[in-house]
Here is the input.
Amino acid sequence: MINLNKYDWESIEINVNGNVTVGMTEISYNDERSIEARYGKGAVPRGYGRKNYKASGNGTLDRDEFERLKTSMGDKVYSKPINIVVSYAVEGMPTVTDTLKNCMITKVDTSSKQDDDNAGAIKIDFTILNPIEWGGKVAY
Here is the structure.
């Protein structure tokens, strides 16, 4: 084995709209496509119906990073989609890249308390309008 180091926060690079984002301290994203059991006569499903695909995420940015993002969007964070690319790279292992295309910010939240070491951090929620490319491939 060449390297026992696995992916950690230091091995992640996050790009928002093509710019490396150094002030993002947290990111989470997910997608789903639910199914619903379809019944007829009896108590056992005869099959299933597919629901719509949904993808969403959230992240935390330092205030200065959020201000850069806001400026790049013409100060209208709810009006333009952003693209987010998350790359995981560790020496000796292949780089894995997830692409989140056309993310629309749906919520901006800030809260701080007296002993915070990162006062003014901004939390954002976003809806992802295109299927997530997990390692370059869409699950849907």
Notes: The CA atoms of residues 36 and 49 lie 5 Å apart. The beta strands are 12-16, 19-20, 24-38, 47-61, 82-88, 96-110, 122-128, 133-134, 137-138.
